Amino acid sequence: MTMPTLKPLAMILATLSLFVLSVSSAWAVGADANSRSVGTASREKGFMEIANPDGSTVSWMSLGYAKAHPEKAREFGLEVQGDTLKPLSPPSANECDGDICIDVIGSGVVVNQWTTVLFGNFGCQRPTFLRNWGNYYTGDYICPGSGETGAYRGRLTGPMRFSDNDALCNTWGNLPGMPCVSIKR
Known about the structure:
- The protein is α+β, with helices and mostly antiparallel strands.
- It has one domain.
- The chain has helices at 3-29, 63-68, 70-76, and strands at 40-44, 47-51, 57-62, 78-81, 84-87, 93-97, 100-107, 110-119, 127-131, 134-138, 150-161, 167-172, 180-182.
- The chain is globular, with a radius of gyration of 20 Å.
C-alpha cells in the first residue's frame, strides 16, 4: 500500500475506535442496549446515575461518597452509621429482605414514589419492580466498576394507581431477597 491509501484507513480506524469507546463508556455507566428509552447518565467518583425521560432513575453510591456527602446520602434515602449504609424510614411503607429494601410513598391506592435499594457492590445490576409477582417495570443496568461497598437505587415516580391488596415487590437480578409491601386503601 502507498502512503495516500493508509491515511483514509487510519481515519476509519480512529473513527471506529472512538465509536467503540463511546458505546463501551455508556454501557459502563449503565446504558442498556435493550432499554426502552435513552437516559442521561452522570458519573463522578463514588456516584453514578441514569435518569430516563419516563422519570425512572437507577443509581449507585459508594460508602465513601455517602460519608463525604451526607446530604446526598439523605437525598438518596440513606444514612451512614459507622462503616455501613442504612435506609432512612419513609413516611408510607417499607420492608427489607436481606440486602434489598423497598420504600413506597403515597396515599391509599396511589403511589407517588416507589424506590428499591440494594446494599453492596455486585457488579452490573438492574432493579425489577413487581406487581403481584408479575413484572411491572425493569430498570436499566448500573455498573459501579469498583470494589468499594455502596448502595444501588432504582426509583419510579408517580402517580401510579394500584388496587387494594396489590403486592409491590422488588428484586435485583438473581440476588437473594424480595421485599414486598401491600397496598391498602
